[in-house]
């Protein structure tokens, strides 16, 4: 335990081990300069970007209502198809109107796709109950395959009555309710739902709204500002050389030397670059991610700190059938607009009414990533020292080969270990003894 060790240099004339040692040292040196220093920039200190995004959608959309000969044409602008986002870095773009319902507060039959709202008698409808909490009906019957909708939500509170004509419980809420039974006809307008029928029956005739294919020609303009607080550097995706005329006319093209930095994106191109089927995603909706990536080397010119754009379709795998949705595919949302004569309930000025829209659309998510690096002496010193220590790995490998896989491994082991006792005359092993043993073996 009370020992002191000193390094000892032993020169071994072994061609294979010597060659292997030089090769390993060369590999470690190349790794240090090429990968660590040049590729990974191990001499720099890095900082993550803080960002802010602003976006707008420009253009007009024209569509027709099939089956409506009186007013078949509809023109939509950004106030119609652009839905105010709930999240910070994203927005929703309507691509198809599924259903429109004029509703007012009152009593009506619950939707037929709410399984626990089905009934035959009043006793099946418990007053105050809210449907959509069980797949079993009050009659203890399981739903058939075509009626299962695990995502269906209730539309009101049970009044305790059973609407026997509809075989569903009566509710108090916004009436009439919307239904999702006709999944293959999503994107259609139920004409009879715009008025309250006395018997609460619903017909199956549809006047189909065409998808808004005109959105393929709309443009998305994105403005992005980032800051690297550690280095007190900020950048803007509208580069200094971009003029007002250029910004009004350019469209993003990834293979063009100048237009790959243009912040205006045609939606048709976004679908193509994201790998999405334009007609399918316009019909069913979906989720598209637009990524703005900043990789900045602050040791060179700041002008080279430019954004790179990427696009990704985030939906699930597309199913083989055009009218069928795969798991996690598609996107829709509901929103309401109060009619002009609708006033708060407390005003006593008429019954509140609203327009309930169910629309398919595309949810765009704007993601910003950024990293900047700059030379730092402390980081460089630590990286240089840690990579320099890797050179000892070549010595360890060569020693292992000498001590275990060569014919003279015993002699090499003895040559590298001399033990000097505390007595001045006592020596366990000396270089002279080892050399004499080697010479006797050769003789």
UniProtKB/TrEMBL annotation:
It is found in: Endomembrane system. GO terms for molecular function: extracellularly ATP-gated monoatomic cation channel activity. One of its GO terms (cellular component) is endomembrane system. Belongs to the P2X receptor family. Its main location: membrane. Keywords: Ion channel, Ion transport, Ligand-gated ion channel, Membrane, Transmembrane, Transmembrane helix, Transport. One of its GO terms (biological process) is calcium ion transmembrane transport. PANTHER family: P2X PURINOCEPTOR, P2X RECEPTOR E. Pfam families: P2X_receptor. The chain crosses the membrane at residues 20-39, 377-405. It comes from the Eukaryota. It comes from Fasciola gigantica. This is P2X purinoceptor 4.
């Amino acid at each position: 335990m009370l020992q002191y060790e000193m390094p000892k240099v032993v020169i071994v004339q072994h061609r294979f081990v010597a060659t292997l040692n030089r090769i390993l040292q060369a590999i470690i040196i190349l790794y240090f300069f090429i990968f660590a220093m040049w590729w990974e920039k191990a001499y720099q200190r890095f900082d993550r970007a803080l960002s802010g995004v602003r976006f707008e959608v420009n253009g007009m959309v024209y569509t027709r209502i099939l089956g409506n000969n009186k007013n078949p044409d509809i023109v939509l602008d950004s106030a119609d198809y652009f839905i105010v986002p709930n999240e910070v870095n994203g927005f929703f773009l309507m691509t198809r109107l599924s259903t429109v319902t004029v509703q007012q507060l009152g009593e009506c039959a619950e939707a037929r796709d709410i399984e626990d709202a089905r009934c035959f008698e009043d006793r099946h409808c418990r007053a105050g109950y809210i449907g959509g909490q069980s797949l079993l009906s009050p009659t203890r019957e399981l739903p058939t395959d075509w009626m299962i909708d695990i995502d269906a939500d209730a539309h009101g509170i049970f009044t305790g009555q059973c609407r026997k004509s509809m075989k569903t419980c009566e509710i108090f809420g916004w009436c009439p309710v919307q239904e999702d039974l006709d999944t293959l006809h999503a994107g259609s307008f139920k004409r009879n739902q715009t008025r309250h029928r006395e018997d609460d029956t619903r017909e199956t005739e549809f006047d189909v709204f065409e998808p808004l294919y005109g959105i393929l020609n709309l443009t998305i303009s994105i403005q992005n500002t980032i800051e690297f607080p550690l280095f007190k550097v900020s950048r803007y995706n509208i580069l200094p050389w971009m003029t007002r005329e250029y910004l009004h006319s350019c469209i993003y093209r990834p293979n063009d030397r100048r237009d790959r930095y243009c912040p205006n994106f045609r939606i048709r191109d976004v679908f193509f670059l994201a790998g999405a089927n334009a007609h399918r995603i316009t019909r069913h909706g979906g989720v598209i991610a637009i990524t703005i990536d900043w990789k900045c080397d602050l040791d060179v010119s700041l002008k080279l700190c430019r954004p790179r754009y990427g696009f990704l379709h985030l939906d699930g795998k597309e199913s083989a059938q055009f009218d069928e949705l795969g798991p996690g595919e598609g996107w829709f949302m509901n929103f309401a607009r109060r009619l002009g004569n609708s006033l708060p309930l407390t005003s006593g000025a008429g019954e509140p009414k609203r327009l309930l829209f169910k629309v398919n659309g595309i949810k765009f998510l704007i993601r910003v990533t950024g990293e900047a690096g700059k030379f730092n002496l402390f980081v460089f010193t630590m990286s240089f020292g840690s990579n320099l220590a890797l050179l000892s790995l070549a010595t360890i490998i060569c020693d292992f080969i000498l001590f275990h896989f060569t014919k003279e491994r015993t002699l090499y082991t003895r040559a590298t270990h001399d033990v000097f006792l505390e007595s001045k005359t006592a020596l366990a092993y000396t270089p002279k003894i080892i050399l004499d043993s080697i010479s006797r073996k050769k003789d």
